[in-house]
Amino acid sequence: MPQTADAPSRTSTSARFDALVRDLIEPLADEVDRTGRFPRDGVRALADAGVLGLLGAPSHGGGGGNLRQAAAVVERLAGVCGSTAMVLLMHYAAATVIEAHGPDDVRRAIADGRHLSTLAFSEHGSRSHFWAPAGTAAADGPDTVLLDAHKSWVTSAGEADSYVWSSRPVRADGPMTLWLVPGGSAGLDVGGDYDGFGLRGNASSPVTAKGVSVPVTARLGADGEGLTTALELVLPCFLVLSAAFSLGVTQALLDLTARHLRTTRLDHLGQTLAEQPVARRHYAELRLRADTVRAFLDGTLAALDAGGGTATLRVLQVKALAGETAAEVADGAMRLCGGSAFRRGMGVERRFRDALATRVMAPTTEALHDFCGRTGLGLPLFEGAR
Length: 386
Ligand SMILES: Cc1cc2nc3c(=O)[nH]c(=O)nc-3n(C[C@H](O)[C@H](O)[C@H](O)COP(=O)(O)OP(=O)(O)OC[C@H]3O[C@@H](n4cnc5c(N)ncnc54)[C@H](O)[C@@H]3O)c2cc1C
Description:
Layout lengths: L13 H22 L4 H9 L18 H14 L1 H20 L2 H8 L5 E4 L15 E4 L4 E11 L7 E6 L9 E6 L5 E3 L14 E11 L10 H38 L1 E2 L4 E2 L4 H30 L2 H28 L1 H5 L5 H8 L9 H12 L10
Parallel strand pairs: 1-4
Antiparallel strand pairs: 2-3, 3-7, 4-5, 6-7, 8-9
The structure holds flavin-adenine dinucleotide.
The site of flavin-adenine dinucleotide (FAD) has 22 residues, from β1, β3 and α11.
Protein backbone atom coordinates (compact mmCIF):
# COMPACT_ATOMS: atom_id res chain seq x y z
CA MET A 1 0.00 0.00 0.00
CA PRO A 2 1.55 3.34 -0.98
CA GLN A 3 2.54 5.66 1.79
CA THR A 4 0.77 9.00 1.99
CA ALA A 5 3.03 12.01 1.51
CA ASP A 6 1.73 13.86 4.52
CA ALA A 7 0.41 11.21 6.83
CA PRO A 8 -1.03 12.92 9.90
CA SER A 9 0.29 11.96 13.29
CA ARG A 10 -1.34 8.84 14.65
CA THR A 11 -4.12 9.60 17.08
CA SER A 12 -5.88 6.30 17.29
CA THR A 13 -8.92 7.60 19.10
CA SER A 14 -12.21 5.85 18.70
CA ALA A 15 -13.78 9.18 17.70
CA ARG A 16 -11.40 9.43 14.75
CA PHE A 17 -12.06 5.82 13.81
CA ASP A 18 -15.83 6.32 14.02
CA ALA A 19 -15.61 9.44 11.88
CA LEU A 20 -13.61 7.80 9.12
CA VAL A 21 -15.90 4.76 9.08
CA ARG A 22 -18.95 7.03 8.83
CA ASP A 23 -17.56 9.64 6.44
CA LEU A 24 -15.27 7.61 4.17
CA ILE A 25 -15.61 3.83 4.39
CA GLU A 26 -19.41 3.56 4.58
CA PRO A 27 -20.13 5.93 1.67
CA LEU A 28 -17.71 3.97 -0.57
CA ALA A 29 -18.85 0.48 0.43
CA ASP A 30 -21.49 -0.03 -2.26
CA GLU A 31 -19.12 1.16 -4.98
CA VAL A 32 -16.36 -1.13 -3.70
CA ASP A 33 -18.81 -4.02 -3.91
CA ARG A 34 -20.23 -3.05 -7.32
CA THR A 35 -16.89 -2.45 -9.01
CA GLY A 36 -14.76 -4.96 -7.07
CA ARG A 37 -12.26 -2.16 -6.48
CA PHE A 38 -9.77 -2.61 -3.62
CA PRO A 39 -10.74 -0.08 -0.90
CA ARG A 40 -7.41 1.79 -1.00
CA ASP A 41 -8.73 5.09 0.31
CA GLY A 42 -10.32 3.48 3.34
CA VAL A 43 -7.30 1.30 4.12
CA ARG A 44 -4.98 4.28 3.78
CA ALA A 45 -7.15 6.32 6.14
CA LEU A 46 -7.19 3.45 8.64
CA ALA A 47 -3.40 3.29 8.38
CA ASP A 48 -3.09 7.02 9.03
CA ALA A 49 -5.37 6.71 12.05
CA GLY A 50 -3.09 4.07 13.59
CA VAL A 51 -5.50 1.18 13.04
CA LEU A 52 -2.99 -0.98 11.09
CA GLY A 53 -0.54 -0.67 13.97
CA LEU A 54 -3.09 -1.32 16.71
CA LEU A 55 -1.60 -4.67 17.79
CA GLY A 56 2.05 -3.56 17.57
CA ALA A 57 4.23 -3.16 20.65
CA PRO A 58 4.60 0.43 21.92
CA SER A 59 8.39 -0.12 21.94
CA HIS A 60 8.18 -0.15 18.13
CA GLY A 61 5.62 2.63 17.86
CA GLY A 62 2.59 0.34 17.84
CA GLY A 63 -0.70 0.91 19.61
CA GLY A 64 -0.18 -1.84 22.20
CA GLY A 65 -3.77 -2.93 21.65
CA ASN A 66 -5.23 -6.33 22.41
CA LEU A 67 -7.37 -8.86 20.56
CA ARG A 68 -10.57 -7.49 22.13
CA GLN A 69 -9.87 -4.06 20.64
CA ALA A 70 -8.96 -5.53 17.26
CA ALA A 71 -12.18 -7.57 17.33
CA ALA A 72 -14.20 -4.40 17.98
CA VAL A 73 -12.52 -2.69 15.01
CA VAL A 74 -13.12 -5.64 12.66
CA GLU A 75 -16.74 -6.04 13.82
CA ARG A 76 -17.52 -2.37 13.22
CA LEU A 77 -15.92 -2.39 9.77
CA ALA A 78 -17.54 -5.68 8.73
CA GLY A 79 -21.03 -4.27 9.18
CA VAL A 80 -20.17 -1.37 6.92
CA CYS A 81 -17.71 -2.69 4.30
CA GLY A 82 -16.87 -6.37 4.44
CA SER A 83 -13.98 -6.01 2.00
CA THR A 84 -12.20 -3.42 4.14
CA ALA A 85 -12.81 -5.49 7.25
CA MET A 86 -11.33 -8.63 5.65
CA VAL A 87 -8.24 -6.74 4.46
CA LEU A 88 -7.67 -5.56 8.02
CA LEU A 89 -8.39 -9.00 9.51
CA MET A 90 -5.78 -10.64 7.30
CA HIS A 91 -3.32 -7.85 8.06
CA TYR A 92 -3.74 -8.36 11.82
CA ALA A 93 -3.31 -12.13 11.47
CA ALA A 94 -0.09 -11.65 9.48
CA ALA A 95 1.14 -8.89 11.78
CA THR A 96 1.03 -11.20 14.82
CA VAL A 97 3.74 -13.35 13.21
CA ILE A 98 5.80 -10.34 12.10
CA GLU A 99 5.52 -8.90 15.60
CA ALA A 100 6.95 -12.11 17.08
CA HIS A 101 9.52 -13.06 14.44
CA GLY A 102 9.85 -10.23 11.92
CA PRO A 103 12.48 -7.53 11.48
CA ASP A 104 12.32 -4.30 13.46
CA ASP A 105 11.97 -2.06 10.40
CA VAL A 106 8.83 -3.88 9.21
CA ARG A 107 7.37 -3.82 12.71
CA ARG A 108 7.95 -0.06 12.83
CA ALA A 109 6.48 0.39 9.36
CA ILE A 110 3.32 -1.49 10.40
CA ALA A 111 3.09 0.61 13.54
CA ASP A 112 3.41 3.79 11.46
CA GLY A 113 0.73 2.68 9.00
CA ARG A 114 3.25 2.36 6.16
CA HIS A 115 2.99 -1.39 5.70
CA LEU A 116 0.03 -3.65 4.89
CA SER A 117 0.53 -7.40 5.21
CA THR A 118 -1.56 -10.52 4.64
CA LEU A 119 -1.46 -14.32 4.85
CA ALA A 120 -0.49 -16.48 1.89
CA PHE A 121 -1.28 -19.95 3.25
CA SER A 122 -3.92 -21.62 1.03
CA GLU A 123 -2.59 -23.48 -2.00
CA HIS A 124 -4.03 -25.02 -5.16
CA GLY A 125 -2.77 -28.45 -4.17
CA SER A 126 -3.79 -28.73 -0.51
CA ARG A 127 -6.66 -26.21 -0.80
CA SER A 128 -8.19 -25.34 2.60
CA HIS A 129 -5.79 -27.78 4.35
CA PHE A 130 -3.44 -24.91 5.20
CA TRP A 131 -1.44 -27.18 7.50
CA ALA A 132 -0.02 -29.07 4.52
CA PRO A 133 1.67 -26.64 2.10
CA ALA A 134 3.09 -28.15 -1.09
CA GLY A 135 5.06 -25.03 -2.02
CA THR A 136 8.79 -25.34 -1.57
CA ALA A 137 11.73 -23.39 -0.19
CA ALA A 138 15.07 -24.46 -1.64
CA ALA A 139 18.49 -23.29 -0.47
CA ASP A 140 20.30 -21.20 -3.11
CA GLY A 141 23.70 -20.86 -1.52
CA PRO A 142 24.21 -20.24 2.20
CA ASP A 143 22.21 -17.00 2.47
CA THR A 144 19.34 -17.25 0.01
CA VAL A 145 16.22 -19.34 -0.49
CA LEU A 146 14.08 -19.80 -3.59
CA LEU A 147 10.32 -20.06 -3.08
CA ASP A 148 7.98 -21.86 -5.48
CA ALA A 149 4.25 -22.19 -4.88
CA HIS A 150 0.74 -21.84 -6.26
CA LYS A 151 -1.18 -19.91 -3.62
CA SER A 152 -4.91 -20.23 -4.35
CA TRP A 153 -6.32 -17.24 -2.44
CA VAL A 154 -4.50 -14.27 -0.98
CA THR A 155 -6.47 -11.30 0.36
CA SER A 156 -4.91 -7.98 -0.71
CA ALA A 157 -2.99 -9.81 -3.46
CA GLY A 158 -0.91 -7.27 -5.37
CA GLU A 159 -1.85 -4.59 -2.83
CA ALA A 160 -0.04 -5.76 0.29
CA ASP A 161 3.52 -4.72 1.07
CA SER A 162 4.31 -8.22 2.27
CA TYR A 163 2.99 -11.76 2.46
CA VAL A 164 3.39 -14.05 5.46
CA TRP A 165 4.09 -17.07 3.31
CA SER A 166 4.00 -20.79 4.14
CA SER A 167 6.21 -23.40 2.47
CA ARG A 168 7.58 -26.82 3.14
CA PRO A 169 10.76 -26.58 5.25
CA VAL A 170 14.17 -26.15 3.63
CA ARG A 171 15.84 -28.97 5.57
CA ALA A 172 14.04 -29.53 8.85
CA ASP A 173 11.38 -32.10 9.59
CA GLY A 174 7.93 -30.73 10.11
CA PRO A 175 5.20 -29.61 7.78
CA MET A 176 5.81 -25.90 7.37
CA THR A 177 8.15 -22.93 7.44
CA LEU A 178 7.02 -19.30 7.34
CA TRP A 179 8.62 -16.44 5.39
CA LEU A 180 8.15 -12.72 5.05
CA VAL A 181 7.95 -12.14 1.30
CA PRO A 182 8.03 -8.52 0.03
CA GLY A 183 5.03 -7.70 -2.17
CA GLY A 184 7.12 -6.57 -5.13
CA SER A 185 9.45 -9.60 -5.25
CA ALA A 186 10.60 -10.70 -8.71
CA GLY A 187 8.93 -14.00 -9.66
CA LEU A 188 5.67 -13.27 -7.82
CA ASP A 189 2.67 -13.24 -10.12
CA VAL A 190 -0.83 -12.18 -9.10
CA GLY A 191 -3.35 -14.20 -11.07
CA GLY A 192 -5.67 -11.46 -12.32
CA ASP A 193 -8.38 -9.41 -10.69
CA TYR A 194 -10.64 -11.02 -8.14
CA ASP A 195 -14.23 -11.36 -9.37
CA GLY A 196 -15.98 -12.87 -6.38
CA PHE A 197 -19.46 -13.51 -5.05
CA GLY A 198 -18.87 -11.54 -1.85
CA LEU A 199 -16.13 -9.38 -0.30
CA ARG A 200 -15.71 -8.19 -3.84
CA GLY A 201 -13.17 -5.50 -3.05
CA ASN A 202 -10.68 -7.55 -1.09
CA ALA A 203 -8.44 -8.56 -4.01
CA SER A 204 -8.41 -12.26 -3.09
CA SER A 205 -6.52 -13.48 -6.13
CA PRO A 206 -4.22 -16.46 -6.61
CA VAL A 207 -0.49 -15.72 -6.34
CA THR A 208 2.20 -17.83 -7.98
CA ALA A 209 5.85 -17.84 -6.93
CA LYS A 210 8.46 -19.03 -9.43
CA GLY A 211 11.95 -19.00 -7.99
CA VAL A 212 11.23 -16.03 -5.72
CA SER A 213 14.53 -15.22 -4.05
CA VAL A 214 14.44 -14.19 -0.39
CA PRO A 215 17.28 -13.99 2.13
CA VAL A 216 17.43 -16.69 4.78
CA THR A 217 16.78 -13.87 7.25
CA ALA A 218 13.26 -13.52 5.79
CA ARG A 219 12.35 -16.69 7.66
CA LEU A 220 9.76 -16.10 10.39
CA GLY A 221 10.75 -18.49 13.19
CA ALA A 222 12.78 -21.65 12.85
CA ASP A 223 12.80 -23.91 9.79
CA GLY A 224 10.02 -26.50 10.19
CA GLU A 225 8.33 -24.60 13.03
CA GLY A 226 5.80 -22.76 10.86
CA LEU A 227 2.79 -24.85 11.81
CA THR A 228 3.50 -24.33 15.52
CA THR A 229 3.70 -20.58 14.88
CA ALA A 230 0.50 -20.69 12.84
CA LEU A 231 -1.36 -22.58 15.56
CA GLU A 232 -0.03 -20.55 18.48
CA LEU A 233 -0.05 -17.04 16.99
CA VAL A 234 -2.07 -16.84 13.79
CA LEU A 235 -4.96 -19.12 14.65
CA PRO A 236 -6.24 -17.43 17.84
CA CYS A 237 -6.07 -14.04 16.16
CA PHE A 238 -7.60 -15.21 12.88
CA LEU A 239 -10.39 -17.24 14.48
CA VAL A 240 -11.45 -14.57 16.97
CA LEU A 241 -11.34 -11.81 14.37
CA SER A 242 -13.24 -13.97 11.87
CA ALA A 243 -15.94 -14.42 14.50
CA ALA A 244 -15.99 -10.65 15.06
CA PHE A 245 -16.24 -10.18 11.30
CA SER A 246 -19.21 -12.55 11.10
CA LEU A 247 -20.86 -10.85 14.05
CA GLY A 248 -20.47 -7.43 12.44
CA VAL A 249 -22.13 -8.62 9.24
CA THR A 250 -24.86 -10.40 11.25
CA GLN A 251 -25.60 -7.29 13.30
CA ALA A 252 -25.80 -5.13 10.18
CA LEU A 253 -28.26 -7.59 8.64
CA LEU A 254 -30.42 -7.48 11.75
CA ASP A 255 -30.34 -3.67 11.88
CA LEU A 256 -31.40 -3.44 8.24
CA THR A 257 -34.11 -6.03 8.81
CA ALA A 258 -35.47 -4.28 11.90
CA ARG A 259 -35.62 -0.98 10.03
CA HIS A 260 -37.47 -2.63 7.16
CA LEU A 261 -39.98 -4.30 9.50
CA ARG A 262 -40.60 -1.09 11.44
CA THR A 263 -41.00 1.20 8.45
CA THR A 264 -42.71 -0.97 5.82
CA ARG A 265 -46.51 -1.01 5.91
CA LEU A 266 -49.33 -3.29 4.87
CA ASP A 267 -51.66 -0.45 3.97
CA HIS A 268 -54.77 -2.62 3.63
CA LEU A 269 -54.32 -3.73 7.26
CA GLY A 270 -53.08 -0.40 8.59
CA GLN A 271 -50.03 -2.15 10.10
CA THR A 272 -46.26 -2.19 9.80
CA LEU A 273 -44.57 -5.52 9.08
CA ALA A 274 -43.30 -5.41 12.66
CA GLU A 275 -46.90 -5.64 13.83
CA GLN A 276 -47.25 -9.04 12.12
CA PRO A 277 -46.65 -11.83 14.68
CA VAL A 278 -44.96 -14.21 12.23
CA ALA A 279 -42.42 -11.58 11.12
CA ARG A 280 -41.79 -10.63 14.76
CA ARG A 281 -41.15 -14.19 15.81
CA HIS A 282 -38.81 -14.84 12.90
CA TYR A 283 -36.88 -11.64 13.69
CA ALA A 284 -36.67 -12.68 17.37
CA GLU A 285 -35.23 -16.07 16.39
CA LEU A 286 -32.53 -14.44 14.27
CA ARG A 287 -31.77 -11.93 17.00
CA LEU A 288 -31.37 -14.72 19.54
CA ARG A 289 -28.79 -16.40 17.30
CA ALA A 290 -26.82 -13.19 16.92
CA ASP A 291 -26.91 -12.47 20.64
CA THR A 292 -25.72 -16.02 21.34
CA VAL A 293 -22.67 -15.38 19.16
CA ARG A 294 -21.98 -12.08 20.94
CA ALA A 295 -22.08 -13.78 24.34
CA PHE A 296 -19.88 -16.61 23.05
CA LEU A 297 -17.34 -14.21 21.58
CA ASP A 298 -17.23 -12.25 24.84
CA GLY A 299 -16.71 -15.53 26.70
CA THR A 300 -13.95 -16.56 24.30
CA LEU A 301 -12.11 -13.28 24.81
CA ALA A 302 -12.52 -13.65 28.58
CA ALA A 303 -11.17 -17.22 28.40
CA LEU A 304 -8.17 -15.97 26.42
CA ASP A 305 -7.56 -13.25 29.03
CA ALA A 306 -7.76 -15.80 31.82
CA GLY A 307 -5.59 -18.37 30.02
CA GLY A 308 -6.02 -22.07 30.72
CA GLY A 309 -7.61 -25.05 29.04
CA THR A 310 -10.98 -23.81 27.85
CA ALA A 311 -9.51 -20.97 25.78
CA THR A 312 -8.27 -23.34 23.06
CA LEU A 313 -11.65 -25.00 22.63
CA ARG A 314 -13.56 -21.70 22.70
CA VAL A 315 -11.25 -20.21 20.06
CA LEU A 316 -11.83 -23.21 17.78
CA GLN A 317 -15.58 -23.07 18.36
CA VAL A 318 -16.15 -19.34 17.98
CA LYS A 319 -15.43 -18.99 14.24
CA ALA A 320 -17.57 -22.03 13.42
CA LEU A 321 -20.48 -20.72 15.49
CA ALA A 322 -20.23 -17.16 14.22
CA GLY A 323 -19.67 -18.11 10.58
CA GLU A 324 -22.61 -20.50 10.44
CA THR A 325 -24.83 -18.06 12.35
CA ALA A 326 -23.99 -15.27 9.91
CA ALA A 327 -24.97 -17.48 6.98
CA GLU A 328 -28.24 -18.53 8.65
CA VAL A 329 -29.16 -14.99 9.72
CA ALA A 330 -28.34 -13.71 6.23
CA ASP A 331 -30.68 -16.29 4.72
CA GLY A 332 -33.35 -15.37 7.28
CA ALA A 333 -32.95 -11.64 6.59
CA MET A 334 -33.33 -12.23 2.85
CA ARG A 335 -36.55 -14.14 3.53
CA LEU A 336 -37.94 -11.66 6.08
CA CYS A 337 -37.28 -8.62 3.90
CA GLY A 338 -38.77 -10.40 0.89
CA GLY A 339 -38.43 -8.99 -2.60
CA SER A 340 -37.13 -5.72 -1.15
CA ALA A 341 -33.93 -7.49 -0.14
CA PHE A 342 -33.31 -8.64 -3.72
CA ARG A 343 -32.68 -5.03 -4.68
CA ARG A 344 -29.10 -3.90 -4.20
CA GLY A 345 -30.08 -0.56 -2.68
CA MET A 346 -31.29 -2.03 0.61
CA GLY A 347 -27.89 -3.47 1.51
CA VAL A 348 -29.14 -6.88 2.65
CA GLU A 349 -28.02 -8.82 -0.43
CA ARG A 350 -24.44 -7.40 -0.15
CA ARG A 351 -24.22 -8.53 3.48
CA PHE A 352 -25.80 -11.89 2.49
CA ARG A 353 -22.95 -12.45 0.03
CA ASP A 354 -20.30 -11.25 2.49
CA ALA A 355 -21.76 -13.42 5.25
CA LEU A 356 -21.05 -16.64 3.33
CA ALA A 357 -17.27 -16.10 3.15
CA THR A 358 -15.96 -16.99 6.59
CA ARG A 359 -17.33 -20.52 6.74
CA VAL A 360 -15.28 -21.52 3.69
CA MET A 361 -12.17 -19.68 4.85
CA ALA A 362 -9.62 -22.03 6.36
CA PRO A 363 -9.98 -23.48 8.86
CA THR A 364 -13.44 -24.05 7.41
CA THR A 365 -16.43 -24.97 9.57
CA GLU A 366 -15.89 -28.65 8.77
CA ALA A 367 -12.23 -28.50 9.78
CA LEU A 368 -13.09 -26.62 12.98
CA HIS A 369 -15.72 -29.18 13.93
CA ASP A 370 -13.08 -31.88 13.51
CA PHE A 371 -10.56 -29.87 15.58
CA CYS A 372 -13.19 -29.30 18.30
CA GLY A 373 -14.03 -32.99 18.36
CA ARG A 374 -10.35 -33.86 18.65
CA THR A 375 -9.78 -31.31 21.42
CA GLY A 376 -12.87 -32.40 23.33
CA LEU A 377 -11.95 -36.07 23.01
CA GLY A 378 -8.30 -35.69 23.93
CA LEU A 379 -6.92 -36.44 20.46
CA PRO A 380 -4.10 -34.49 18.79
CA LEU A 381 -5.25 -31.73 16.43
CA PHE A 382 -3.40 -33.36 13.53
CA GLU A 383 -2.38 -36.95 12.89
CA GLY A 384 0.77 -35.64 11.28
CA ALA A 385 0.07 -32.91 8.74
CA ARG A 386 -1.11 -34.63 5.59
C1 LIG B 1 -12.88 -14.11 0.35
C2 LIG B 1 -11.77 -15.05 0.67
C3 LIG B 1 -10.54 -14.57 1.09
C4 LIG B 1 -9.49 -15.44 1.35
N1 LIG B 1 -8.29 -14.95 1.75
C5 LIG B 1 -7.25 -15.79 2.01
C6 LIG B 1 -5.98 -15.29 2.44
O1 LIG B 1 -5.78 -14.08 2.59
N2 LIG B 1 -4.97 -16.18 2.66
C7 LIG B 1 -5.15 -17.52 2.50
O2 LIG B 1 -4.22 -18.25 2.75
N3 LIG B 1 -6.34 -18.02 2.11
C8 LIG B 1 -7.39 -17.19 1.86
N4 LIG B 1 -8.60 -17.69 1.46
C9 LIG B 1 -8.72 -19.13 1.20
C10 LIG B 1 -9.47 -19.86 2.30
O3 LIG B 1 -8.79 -19.77 3.52
C11 LIG B 1 -9.67 -21.34 1.91
O4 LIG B 1 -8.44 -21.97 1.72
C12 LIG B 1 -10.49 -21.47 0.65
O5 LIG B 1 -11.66 -20.69 0.73
C13 LIG B 1 -10.85 -22.93 0.46
O6 LIG B 1 -11.48 -23.05 -0.81
P1 LIG B 1 -11.28 -24.41 -1.62
O7 LIG B 1 -12.16 -24.31 -2.83
O8 LIG B 1 -9.85 -24.66 -1.84
O9 LIG B 1 -11.92 -25.40 -0.56
P2 LIG B 1 -11.72 -26.95 -0.41
O10 LIG B 1 -10.54 -27.26 0.44
O11 LIG B 1 -11.81 -27.63 -1.73
O12 LIG B 1 -13.01 -27.30 0.47
C14 LIG B 1 -14.33 -27.26 -0.07
C15 LIG B 1 -15.30 -27.70 1.03
O13 LIG B 1 -14.98 -29.01 1.44
C16 LIG B 1 -14.80 -29.05 2.85
N5 LIG B 1 -13.74 -29.99 3.18
C17 LIG B 1 -12.45 -29.94 2.80
N6 LIG B 1 -11.74 -30.97 3.32
C18 LIG B 1 -12.62 -31.65 4.08
C19 LIG B 1 -12.50 -32.79 4.92
N7 LIG B 1 -11.34 -33.47 5.04
N8 LIG B 1 -13.61 -33.23 5.54
C20 LIG B 1 -14.80 -32.58 5.41
N9 LIG B 1 -14.96 -31.48 4.64
C21 LIG B 1 -13.89 -31.03 4.00
C22 LIG B 1 -14.42 -27.66 3.25
O14 LIG B 1 -14.77 -27.41 4.61
C23 LIG B 1 -15.21 -26.82 2.29
O15 LIG B 1 -16.50 -26.59 2.78
C24 LIG B 1 -9.67 -16.83 1.19
C25 LIG B 1 -10.91 -17.32 0.78
C26 LIG B 1 -11.95 -16.45 0.52
C27 LIG B 1 -13.29 -17.02 0.09
